Amino acid sequence: MATGKITIGNVCFLIDKNKNEILFLERFFEPMKDLFTGVGGKTNFDEDIHTSCLREINEETGLNAKNLKLKGIIKTILSGHDSSWILFIYTSSEFYGKQIDCPEGKLHWVGINDVEKLNLIGFIREIMPFVLNEDSIIEGTITHDLTGTVLSKKIIEIQ
């Protein structure tokens, strides 16, 4: 039986419904440098998942989000490494504040119709149709390599 490190984390996609845009982070650093993802990160040991997502949004964007909507829970497994994440996926269309430069990458507001043109991390590409569907909630497991390319997946739409 394999053993390894499991990280609890989150990723959030801020959606500006007035402009029909979604906020992405183009990563500055490895792993997955130069690829696009949502904002988010690790949940600290002593914080709840919802609070960690709000903290990560604020740290990476300067914005304060409200009314997070849980879109799913995905386990990601990095093939060939002892690394796995339990990733809570959220959206929010209610946020305020002044956007800042992110220390982890460049923030881009992208038209929802242009999302498929982005150089997305592979497992983010797999979940985006569900993220963008108002009614979808998903769970599953995605195995990927160091570049984020999906090697196998099992995604179940539970709603």
UniProtKB/TrEMBL annotation:
Its cofactor is Mg(2+). Keywords: Hydrolase, Magnesium, Metal-binding. Pfam families: NUDIX (PF00293). Belongs to the Nudix hydrolase family. One of its GO terms (molecular function) is hydrolase activity, acting on acid anhydrides, in phosphorus-containing anhydrides. GO terms for cellular component: cytoplasm. Signal peptide: none annotated. PANTHER family: 7,8-DIHYDRO-8-OXOGUANINE TRIPHOSPHATASE, OXIDIZED PURINE NUCLEOSIDE TRIPHOSPHATE HYDROLASE. This is Nudix hydrolase domain-containing protein. PROSITE patterns: NUDIX. Residues 5-133 form the Nudix hydrolase domain. InterPro entries: NUDIX_hydrolase-like_dom_sf (IPR015797), NUDIX_hydrolase_dom (IPR000086). It comes from Prolixibacter bellariivorans.
